[in-house]
Design a protein that fits this description.
mainly alpha; two-stranded antiparallel sheet; globular
């Protein structure tokens, strides 16, 4: 009887915790949807204006309207900084994952991977402060700019921040490739590099893509570190050496100074809703990749 109670007691506890997480996630989504949709339902702005206009000058007082809520500049800023970060971090991450799993597996598992994982726990403000103190002056002096705040600075900071995520998940994906694949490649006369390039990496591709998407998701959601080095200028960047602003920096900079329920405040909530939707799309994409991978293995 006691065993029966423990069994169903534990099952009930786990079920309640799981249900709570689901309810919490749905509640956050509904809250963001209600707040974020106010720009379009309460103040009657169009989605097209919000996504594609660069004119951002909303009214702040509740009930007042007639301003503009174009968020194209921070949207483009987010896309550029995250894309640049991914372009910088991905080759280094995959190379590091190959090194710690195939080239030096013992030292990689005991030394290199734990050292890389330490970077995950470093607060974002530390990355931002180092970027502000060292990276921004270096960019200014190296490229003879008036100021070092730029898309390049934000991209480099984000690349360093997402490097551990992509590396760790890629390394786990590579380790999951059966050893028989490697033995078969060697048996056919492959060199170690040929085995890695033609067998191991293709077999672990879905896991590597998952790591890249997870890193990209973190890059989109990062606020403080990016805000410290990007310049927070509401203008499209002319190149990667120009300052601009991204979605998270725009929200962090203006949310506390906006009046609750005003056109300005709801425009910022719309940006938060857009980030939430992007995160959901990333999660869906990860599940699609995982499902295709399982289907391929089953076939």
């Amino acid at each position: 009887m006691d065993k029966f109670r423990r069994e169903y007691g534990g099952r009930s506890l786990v079920t309640i915790c799981g249900a709570f997480i689901i309810v919490l996630t749905v509640s956050i989504g509904l809250f963001l949807f209600i707040k974020g949709s106010g720009t379009f339902t309460k103040y009657h702005h169009s989605v097209f204006e919000f996504l594609f206009s660069s004119d951002f000058n909303p009214m702040d007082a509740p009930g007042q309207y007639g301003g503009t809520v174009g968020a194209a500049v921070p949207i483009v800023g987010s896309l550029l900084t995250c894309g640049l970060a991914l372009l910088i971090a991905t080759p280094f991450s995959i190379a590091a994952a190959v090194f710690i799993t195939e080239i030096a597996p013992v030292a990689g598992k005991k030394v290199f991977q734990p050292a890389i994982e330490i970077f995950v726990g470093i607060p974002s403000v530390v990355y931002g402060w180092i970027g502000l103190s060292l990276l921004v002056p270096w960019i200014k002096n190296a490229f003879h700019l008036k100021a070092g705040f730029s898309v390049l600075g934000a991209g480099i900071v984000l690349a360093i921040m997402i490097f551990p995520t992509i590396t760790t998940l890629s390394a786990d994906a590579i380790r999951s490739v059966p050893m028989d694949y490697r033995k078969a490649a060697y048996g056919l006369g492959s060199t170690r590099w040929q085995m890695i390039w033609h067998v191991v990496l293709p077999a672990s591709l879905s896991g590597i893509l998952t790591g890249i998407i997870m890193g990209l998701s973190r890059a989109f959601g990062e606020a403080l570190a990016v805000a410290m080095v990007i310049g927070k200028t509401r203008a499209f960047p002319k190149n990667i050496f120009s300052p601009t602003i991204n979605l998270t920096a725009a929200i962090a900079a203006d949310m506390t100074g906006s009046t609750d329920g005003g056109e300005f405040n709801l425009a910022l909530w719309s940006m938060a809703l857009l980030l939430f939707i992007i995160s959901i799309l990333f999660i869906v994409l990860i599940h699609v990749i995982d499902a295709k991978s399982k289907k391929k293995l089953a076939g």
